[in-house]
Design goal:
Number of helices: 5
CATH class: Alpha Beta
Oligomer: single chain
Strand content: 15-25%
Radius of gyration: 13 Å
Largest sheet: 5 strands, parallel
CATH superfamily: Response regulator
Number of domains: 1
Strand order of the largest sheet: 2-1-3-4-5
Distance between the termini: 11 Å
CATH topology: Rossmann fold
Shape: globular
């Protein structure tokens, strides 16, 4: 993937943010991380984000709420949600709201990469992402 494909990771857990950042950078993505949805919404390059990976449950605004706010504001960033506490109602609502993927932690690398590739569309995908 070219370094101009910017992926944002929003999770209140620092170890997960750092691990995902390392993985995605190793695959050639540009990555920015944020500890909260509120912090992400202040990002000066918000409109440059090609894919958002967000935790479902965070203090303050949740991942699904963040996705809904982005859509309502006219910035529907393809969003992948992840959670350690799966809930079928939350999953169903998130998918109905247009979330690209809903993954269960610990997230399997191949599932995450497939979701990213799907979110970016065929024109952005290269052979580097399975």
């Amino acid at each position: 993937m070219p370094n101009d494909v910017l992926i944002a990771i929003v999770d209140d857990g620092e170890p997960l943010r750092e691990a995902m950042q390392s993985l995605l950078k190793a695959l050639g993505f540009a990555v920015e991380t944020f500890a909260s949805a509120e912090e992400f919404l202040k990002f000066d390059r918000l409109r440059k984000v090609a894919c958002l990976i967000a935790d479902v449950q965070m203090p303050g605004m949740s991942g699904p709420e963040l996705h809904r706010q982005l859509v309502a504001s006219g910035n529907p960033i393809p969003t992948i949600l992840m959670t350690a506490y799966p809930d079928d109602r939350v999953r169903t609502r998130a998918l109905q709201d247009g979330v690209a993927c809903y993954l269960i932690k610990p997230v399997k690398e191949d599932h995450l990469l497939a979701c990213i590739r799907s979110s970016l569309g065929p024109s952005a995908a290269t052979g580097q992402v399975p």
